[in-house]
């Protein structure tokens, strides 16, 4: 979903289910949104995922647009003990956030 579409939806009273995706390597928090039961990234005009440097930055942005909850999804792509990729469906933790 384009960032402009997301903002239009949220600013006109929509409350889309939002997700902040954080990978173990860092690189901030990517904003994703659920559309028709499918989660997709919010992308900017250049086609790159819209990211925040901190949860505080994400909270301020979402609250500004009338969204007061999201889910933080932490991905752990490697098993720290053996250095192997984790199987699909494993290695993810979801934390509900209220703003």
Note the run of SSEs as H and E: HEEEEHEE
Number of helices: 2
Major sheet: size, sense and barrel closure?
6 strands, mixed
Helix % is: 10-25%
- Quote the distance from N terminus to C terminus: 23 Å
Radius of gyration computed on alpha carbons: 14 Å
Strand content: 35-45%
Number of self-contained structural domains: 1
Low-confidence stretches: none
| Shape, per Cα inertia axes | globular
How confident is the prediction overall: mean pLDDT? 85
How many beta-strand runs? 6
Structure characteristics:
six-stranded mixed sheet, alpha+beta
Q: Would you spell out the secondary-structure blueprint of this structure?
A:
Blueprint: H1 3-11, E1 18-23, E2 26-35, E3 38-41, E4 51-52, H2 55-64, E5 69-75, E6 92-98
Parallel strand pairs: 1-5
Antiparallel strand pairs: 1-2, 2-3, 2-4, 5-6
Question: Would you kindly provide a written description of the structure presented here, covering whatever features stand out?
Answer:
The protein has 99 residues and is an alpha+beta fold. It has one domain (3-98). It is 19% helix and 36% strand. Strands 1, 2, 3, 4, 5 and 6 form a six-stranded mixed β-sheet that branches. Strand 2 (26-35) and strand 3 (38-41) form a beta hairpin. The longest helix has 10 residues, at 55-64. The chain starts with a helix and ends with a strand.
């Amino acid at each position: 979903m384009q960032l402009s579409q997301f903002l239009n939806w949220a600013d006109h009273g929509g409350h889309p289910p939002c997700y902040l995706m954080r990978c173990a390597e860092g690189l901030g928090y990517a904003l994703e949104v659920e559309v028709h039961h499918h989660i997709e990234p919010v992308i900017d005009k250049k086609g790159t995922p819209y990211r925040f440097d901190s949860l505080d930055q994400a909270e301020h942005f979402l609250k500004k647009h009338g969204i007061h909850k999201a889910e933080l999804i932490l991905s752990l792509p490697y098993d720290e003990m053996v250095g192997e990729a984790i199987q699909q469906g494993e290695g993810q933790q979801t934390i509900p956030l209220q703003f």
